[in-house]
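This is your field. Please look over both lines of this record.
***
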Amino acid sequence: MNSAKVYVDVTVRFREDGRMLPLRIYWEDGTAYRIDAVLDVRQAAAQKAGGQGDRYTIRVRGRECYLFFERSASLTGNNIGRWFVERRVTA
């Protein structure tokens, strides 16, 4: 079983102190999933899909999973990065 990196739309709240708080994930088919809780945030590699960034351990519908924020290398403009999740793909 392999995993693939899937870029997703995310609704995010920017807190007064500058932290990002993801609130909702939108899957490829447009289905929205509310994030019940953010359990942890740390710098980490996406072991299954490759790449690295800020790894958010989140709870959605009672299940824990990872949501990654991959920061842009550009220091200017409004594209500060992209969100992705790891999708399991059977061979």
About this structure: The mean pLDDT is 87. The longest strand covers residues 2-14. The chain has no helices and seven strands.
